[in-house]
Structures are given as structure tokens and as C-alpha cells.
Design a protein that fits this description.
Two copies of one chain form a homodimer. Chain A is an alpha/beta fold and 316 residues long. Helices cover 41% and strands 22% of the residues of chain A. In chain A, helix 8 packs parallel to helix 10. The longest helix of chain A has 24 residues. Chain A is globular, with a radius of gyration of 21 Å.
């Protein structure tokens, strides 16, 4: 295993993820924690970062590149949004150095779509985009990045030209915890598995209705009362309806050429979206989101010159 | 003012409303309280009812007719759902007497649509329907009953043939309190006024998108960040989007003949829906929901024979 050269951090609202990378971008050490922006806002971003760096024995002068909510106005230091359209270089060039730190720490900016009729912002997903540039460097592409707030991105010849956000993950969370549907879902508010029949049926229903799930949500409650719907099936139904509605809506708005979608997602959520996109008749190219963000952070480090010396030096 | 003859109660999940009516159905006294099913489940339905009856000096033998969640399984005593299709007589005939009470107390049933593909239930709205029977006694009609859970009802020649539910009111509540949109709405989560420009713009946008507001919800948050959207306008926007989406969805599914809608709603919510339905190009016949439920309860009392003697006696 090679020596770690840089630290890469994806710092979200409620999550913190750290990789130590060698000069070729390979992962030497990794750490996950719940010390997101909400925690760091109280304890301090600097002390939390140093604590995690110490836990993986990072050297005192190792530089750190960060993406995500740490760069929000309410984060550590604001890395102002880069306005669309922009290429990946435009994003990586917007990195802001955190002042008064014992080491070189840069935070990457988010993206802003400053259209009067469709304002939108992202923080974190732009770095995933930097990590998958080879997939959209030529031609027009539509990229689906599911999550708490799903982002659907339009790119042309490597330039990000537009994006839109669906609240799908958060929608599932608030409806399952705070609406009348909580009586139907109980504590079964976990993600469905892709082959779950209730998920497939609900996703297909949402797609066949062009994404209009208005009258379908309360039916989950009624099906509990009249048809003895079980909590697991209720959760899978809600998940299928919301994901199907997102895909129908995004396809109508973004009109992906040949219904080809680049899906950037990890783990069970990635499998679920891949299944749902295939139900919708889309051709899916699936990239791993964790790898994408790590690669994107490494690309930023390269442009900062942090890995240049190592690349020039012949490796043993 | 004539002597009170019967007590009529609309007993919801979180609200209790009582009217004393004379033999002709005119209101002699009225009382509102927050002693809904949730409170009554703890303190007991009987004691709460008697407390409110005492406060309006109802006689010890005055009969009481009740509609709403008091008849749910988790309510006072279950008044089993009447299955569609049904006429109003079928609903009123389903009243269940509460046993072991010092006075005659009847609870009206709710309605169930037992369709495998579209199960649905209502409790309370069926009694409003009983109160507006003259409006739909002949011909096919679509009836909009907005609220926490908006009900859209199809009726043909006085028979209820189908209905569907939109979570609009609850959706507004959970998104404004529990989602990222709470940062944009702040404490301004009050209903918009019908002429509010942000409400009109958002409702028109939702209608022009055929009700697809998927990418519009997060734009409220982005507009706060990029366009300095104010909390009041954010709340009006969310309200306009959700109500516009409901109307677009319901029209597509129910296809009201000549876009004529019977709207059953009271107060600010009624004005808001009337404005939204007009934006959608619908012809609106607006009935007051409070009057409708009171009239419906009186119709039930008439069929129970509780007012018959009085009608036979010539009035002074």
C-alpha cells in the first residue's frame, strides 16, 4: 500500500466521510461518522476534522480537500456557488482555502442555477460529477443522483447546463414519520428491496399515471383499514410511488435522449433506482456515488498541484 | 328563538363541534372545542360529551346525533363503514346507538370504497354530503371537499358512486414543519389569502404543469437562498403548488362534466379553493361545509323520528 498523500472529505448535513488517498488516488484509509454540519456547527469544524485525521494517523502537514455542506453559508467557511453553465474545471477552480489553519484545507463550491423560473442549488453532488466526467465528456447526457434530495443533471460535452431537485428521500421520511401514513408504516420505514412486489407494483402504478400519485398516498392508509396491508408492504408502496413519480416527472422535464440515464448512487438506494429506471424503460449506466465523490475530490487535489510531484516521481 | 330539540355533534380527530337545533333545524346554541377523538380517547367520550351538553344547558333527555371519528374503530363505538355505491338514506340508516348511556346517542357511519385498486374511506364528509343532497340529487356531479385530507366525490342522481383522497392539508403541514422547506417558511405556515400573488403564481404553475410539482418544491428553498424569497411568500407558494396539484390531478381522474365543481368548504380554506378552482377554469358552486354538516346531522335526526312530532304540530 502506498503512502497517503492527501485527505479527501465529503462533509454533509448529517454525515462526515474521510478518505486518505495516495498520489495515484487509491484509498489508503477510510472513516465514516455522523459528525455532519449539524454536529460540527456546535463543536467546531476544525477540531472535528483534526480528531478524525488523527484517528487515521494523517501527517500534520497533509492537505485536505472537502466538498459538501461544510462550504455552505451556515457551514465552516462559505465556498460561493459557481453559476451554471460550467465545466468541471470551473467547479474545481472555485475551491476556497480555510484561513488560519495548521494545514492547507480547501472547500469546493456548490452549483447554482440562477434561472428566475427555476432557481436551484447543490452542494456535494457537483464533486460526484467531477468524478464521473469521462461518462459525460462528449454528447448530451442526463444524470440521476438519488438521495434525500434527488438531483437530475443535464450535461452537454462535459458542461453542466442545468439541473432540478426532487425531495423524494425527505418526502418518504416526513410522510412515514409525521403524516397519517405513519399508522400504516409503523416502524417499517426502511428502504424497500428492488424485487419487493409492493415496490414494483407501486412504482409501475406511479409510472403509468405519469407520476401523478395524488390519490395514491392515502390509499396506503385505506388499504391498511380495508385490505389488511402490512407495514413492510406499506413502506415499499410509499417508496415505489415516490420514486416512480420522480422518474416520470424527471423524464418528462429532461427528455433524456434514447431514455439513457447515468445513475450515480451507492448501496441499496442505487439498486432500487436502477430497478425503478428499468421499470420505466430506461437504459441505465450505473456509477457508484461513493467512488464518484472520492474520485472528484482527488481530481480537485490534482488541479491544486498536491499530487503533481508524486506523479512526476517514478514509483518504486 | 325556538326550543332546542336535538343535539348535533361533528366529532373529528382533533376537534369537537356541537349545535343545539330546534325542530326545524335552526341553530339555538353552538359550541366548539379542541376535545377531539385524541382527547376523548383519554378522558372518555361520554364525560366529554355530557360536559359540553351541560355547558349549553341541554336537557337530560335530549337525543344526540354524531358524525366523524367518534365512529371509528379507535373512537367511541364503531359505526361500520357503508360501502359504495350508496344513497344518502343508506348512510343515515347506518347510525349506531351508543349502549348504556343516559340518553339516546347515535353515531353515523363513514363510507368505504372497497375497490381493490382504489380503496378509500371517509368519516364526517359523508354527513356534509347528506346536508347538500339537493345540489346533486339529479345528474352527475363532482364534489370537492378540501381539508387535511381533501375528498373528491362522484355522485350520480343522488347516489355516491366513488371518491378519492388527496393529502393536501397534511402535506402542507408536514413539509412546512418537518422538511428543509421549514427554513424557508419559518413560522409563516399560515394559509395564504386567495389574492396573494405568490399563491396565484404557484397555483397557476402547478396547473400548467398538469399538477407535476416534483421539481417545484425544492425551488422554494433555492429561491430563499438565491432570490431572497420571504417566508410569507414561501408559505403561499407551497400552498398554491399543493392545491394546484390537487385540482389538476382530481380533474384528470374525475373528469367533471363541463368542469363544474360543487365546492363544500368554509372560511379562508373555502375562499382559497374557490379562487384556485377558478384559476383552473372550473365553474364553482360553493356550499358552506359547516352548514352542510349541521344540515346533514339534522337530516339524520329527522329520519330517526326525533323531529317528527314537532313538524306535525302547527308552530305559533
Amino acid at each position: 500500500m502506498s503512502a497517503p498523500t492527501i485527505a479527501a472529505v465529503d462533509w454533509g448535513t448529517s454525515s462526515f466521510r474521510l478518505w486518505l488517498l495516495d498520489a495515484a488516488g487509491a484509498t489508503v484509509a477510510e472513516r465514516r461518522s455522523g459528525d455532519g454540519m449539524l454536529t460540527a456547527g456546535g463543536e467546531g469544524f476544525g477540531p472535528i476534522l483534526e480528531k478524525h485525521l488523527a484517528s487515521v494517523e494523517a501527517s500534520a502537514d497533509m492537505p485536505v480537500v472537502i466538498c459538501g455542506m461544510a462550504g455552505a453559508r451556515q457551514g465552516w467557511i462559505e465556498a460561493p456557488y459557481v453559476t451554471l453553465p460550467t465545466g468541471i474545471d470551473g467547479i474545481l477552480a472555485g475551491a476556497v482555502r480555510v484561513p488560519d489553519q495548521p494545514r492547507d484545507i480547501r472547500i469546493l463550491p456548490g452549483l447554482a442555477q440562477r434561472r428566475d423560473d427555476a432557481p436551484d442549488v447543490m452542494r456535494g453532488e457537483e464533486t460526484q460529477l467531477a468524478g464521473i466526467l469521462p461518462l459525460f465528456v462528449s454528447g448530451r447526457h442526463v444524470i440521476c443522483m438519488p438521495g434525500t434530495h434527488s438531483k437530475w443533471v443535464e450535461a452537454a460535452d462535459g458542461t453542466i447546463t442545468g439541473f432540478a431537485t426532487w425531495l423524494t428521500g425527505e418526502h418518504f421520511s416526513v410522510l412515514s414519520k409525521h403524516s397519517i401514513l405513519r399508522h400504516s408504516l409503523g416502524d417499517s420505514a426502511s428502504p424497500a428491496l428492488p424485487g419487493n412486489p409492493a415496490f414494483v407494483a407501486a412504482c409501475s402504478e406511479a409510472l403509468s399515471q405519469g407520476g401523478d400519485i395524488g390519490p395514491s398516498l392515502f390509499r396506503i392508509r385505506a388499504a391498511t383499514l380495508l385490505q389488511d396491508l402490512k407495514p413492510d408492504a406499506a413502506a415499499a408502496t410509499l417508496s415505489g410511488l415516490l420514486i416512480g413519480a420522480e422518474i416520470a416527472s424527471a423524464r418528462r422535464i429532461l427528455k433524456p435522449a434514447g431514455d439513457k440515464i447515468i445513475l450515480v448512487a451507492s448501496g441499496p438506494l442505487g439498486s432500487l433506482y436502477a430497478a425503478a429506471l428499468k421499470l420505466a424503460g430506461c437504459a441505465v449506466l450505473h456509477a457508484d456515488a461513493d467512488e464518484a465523490v472520492c474520485t472528484g475530490l482527488f481530481e480537485a487535489a490534482k488541479r491544486l498541484g498536491w499530487t503533481a510531484r508524486d506523479f512526476e516521481r517514478p514509483r518504486p
